[in-house]
Amino acid sequence: MKKNAISSSQDVEVRKGPWTMEEDLILINYISNHGEGVWNTLARSAGLKRTGKSCRLRWLNYLRPDVRRGNITTDEQLLIMELHAKWGNRWSKIAKHLPGRTDNEIKNYWRTRIQKHIKQTETFNGQKSLGHTNQATTSSTQTCNAINPMQTYPPPYENLQNFSSPFPTETNENMWSMEELWSIHLLSSD
DNA sequence: AACCAATCCAACCGCCAACAT
DNA sequence: AATGTTGGCGGTTGGATTGGT
Prior knowledge:
Layout: H1 21-34, H2 39-46, H3 52-63, H4 74-87, H5 91-95, H6 103-128, H7 136-143, H8 149-152, H9 178-188
This protein binds a DNA duplex through α3 and α6.
C-alpha cells in the first residue's frame, strides 16, 4: 500500500497542544453534519490541522454532548473502586459502566485522588505496624496495576465514604463551557 | 505581594490489535 | 502472507491553577 502522504514533511503541518474554540466548533459542526468515524479523513475533510487521534480524543473526552465532567459522586467513587478491584487499570471498560464518564477522567481521578488516598492509608498503617513493612511501601503503587489488585490494596475502601469529596464545585473557568460551544454551534447552524 | 511546592487535568505518546490492501 | 493504516487503550507529561509560607 502507498504511504499516507499526510505524514510527509511538505504536507500540512500538524497542530498540537490545547484546542482553540474555533477548532472545537469546527469539529462539533463537522460531526453533527457527518457523524463520527474514520478520524484521519474527518480531520482532513473538516479542515482541521490535527491528527485523527487528536480529534477523536477531543471529541470523546470533551466535546461529546453526553459527556459529564467533574463532581464525581460517592456512588461513582465506590463503583470505580469496585470495578478497579475487579479489572485493574482497564479504564475504558470501567468507563462503560459510568455513563457520561470518560476513561481519561476516571484514570485521572484514580491516579490523583484514590491512589493517593490509598497510599496515605498504607503509609499510616505502615507506621502503625512497623516491622511488617516488607515490600509494601515500595511496590504498592505500581502493583495496583497488576494481576490481582484485591491483594494489593488493603481494605481502606470504607474510608472513602469519609474522604471529603475532592471536587471543586465547578471547573474550568478559563475554558469555554460546553453550553457555550453548543449554543454557538446551534445558532450558527440555523 | 512574591515565591515555591503540590495538585490537577487536557493532551500527547507508544504500543497493539483489527482491518484493509 | 506481508505490509500498511487506523482506532483504541493505558501510561505519561507539561502547563495552569491552587495552596502554603
